[in-house]
Amino acid sequence: MLCRLSPDRAQRFYAGLLSACMWLITTDAIALQQDSLTVDNAVEIVLQRNPSVAQATEALEAARALTQGLKSANYPSVKASLSDAYIGPEYPFNLGGGHKFAMYPDNNFDAHIGADYSIYDFGKRSVMIKNGIVGEAISADNLQNITAGLSFQIVQI
């Protein structure tokens, strides 16, 4: 069955078809313009999305945190504890003259405060801190080597 369009409808149909084709052509042209990458953009994208770079970055942060933890040994540590024990009921004795005498107190409090500080440890802390700093440097070098290697591969491609 053939469908005949009135000249007015045919004109609208062809105008709509033409505008749809023009829209497709312009969106393809815009997509082609956005498809082009510079070397800097490609390197930046790869370095942001590569899991080995993320792993090396996290290893560097872990090494820094370990070094900070080792440096905390240079400071004293303070500990405090408080406890309460109710031992009751209490049965006091009546003494002459209106005085009462109890064998034990019915409410016991126990408080402890302590501070620890190592005065001398034969250089153990300083050696551990130096090892932590060396670990940081190794992690930083590893990150730099990974980023340089990936950048070189992208430039070669």
Residue-averaged pLDDT, rounded?
83
Intertermini distance = 57 Å
As a whole number of angstroms, the C-alpha radius of gyration is 39 Å
What is the number of E strands?
4
Percentage of residues assigned to helices: 55-70%
Strand content: 15-25%
Based on CA inertia axes, which overall geometry fits?
A: elongated
Major sheet characteristics: 2 strands, antiparallel
Order of helices and strands: HHHEEEEH
How are the SSEs ordered, and which strands pair?
Blueprint: H1 7-35, H2 39-49, H3 51-71, E1 77-86, E2 93-95, E3 99-101, E4 107-116, H4 124-156
Antiparallel strand pairs: 1-4, 2-3
Helix pairs in contact: 2-4, 3-4
Question: Could you walk me through the main structural features you see in this protein, from its secondary elements to its overall organization?
Answer:
Helices cover 60% and strands 17% of the residues. It is of the alpha+beta class. It has a two-stranded antiparallel sheet with strand order 1-4. A hairpin with a 3-residue loop joins strand 2 (93-95) and strand 3. Helix 2 (39-49) packs across helix 4 (124-156) and helix 3 runs antiparallel to helix 4 (124-156). The longest helix is centred in the last third of the chain and has 33 residues, at 124-156.
